[in-house]
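Exercise 7b. Backbone tokens:
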């Protein structure tokens, strides 16, 4: 898979994203391609260099908060596992709580469960039944949007638990897998779309 690049009138490369060229370029420059992970034929987009760079990670979190507005959500839900890091940083930056959406068997109390298809298999997510107050506005975050199965399952779980999805953000969207289309009519915010 190659980056989807656009070219400006001077012949320079312009990257695409919902928070502008600077945010998209930051992600594009720090993401690393890892072939054949987690299995043969998959090209994994590793965002850990972005998370490891304090100034770049802070700017990424600031771009997410700026897009949604710090008063547009009451709590942040992070999807296991890299979504936890993003959600925690957003929650800290805005003074709200954070809720984990976990793989099956990881949460200690009564849960709601959703099983869904991945581009390379099947998975199950869980959420505590009492994770949200009725009507609580939830910003949902993850690192990558691929086919949309994980995101769709998560958004459905949040609504089943009584939360109201206030927004959904990813650092990187793999547009050719059409996950955004699967999530309609919900909106998707991606810092970099490739």
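Sequence design result:
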């Amino acid at each position: 898979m190659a980056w989807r690049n656009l070219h400006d009138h001077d012949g320079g490369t312009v990257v695409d994203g919902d928070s502008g060229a600077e945010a998209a370029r930051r992600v594009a420059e720090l993401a690393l391609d890892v072939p054949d992970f987690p299995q043969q034929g998959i090209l994994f987009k590793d965002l850990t260099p972005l998370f490891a760079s304090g100034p770049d990670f802070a700017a990424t979190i600031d771009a997410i908060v700026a897009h949604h507005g710090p008063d547009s959500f009451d709590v942040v839900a992070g999807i296991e596992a890299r979504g936890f890091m993003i959600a925690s940083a957003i929650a800290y930056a805005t003074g709200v709580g954070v809720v984990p959406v976990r793989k099956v068997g990881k949460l200690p109390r009564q849960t709601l469960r959703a099983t869904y298809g991945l581009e390379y298999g099947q998975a199950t997510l869980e959420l505590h039944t009492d994770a949200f107050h009725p009507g609580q506005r939830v910003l949902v975050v993850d690192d990558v949007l691929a086919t949309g199965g994980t995101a769709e399952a998560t958004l459905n779980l949040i609504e089943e638990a009584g939360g109201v999805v206030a927004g959904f953000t990813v650092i990187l969207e793999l547009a050719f897998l059409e996950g955004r289309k699967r999530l309609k009519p919900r909106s998707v915010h991606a810092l970099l779309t490739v």
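Instructor comment: The longest helix spans residues 54-68. Confidence is low (pLDDT under 50) at residues 1-12.
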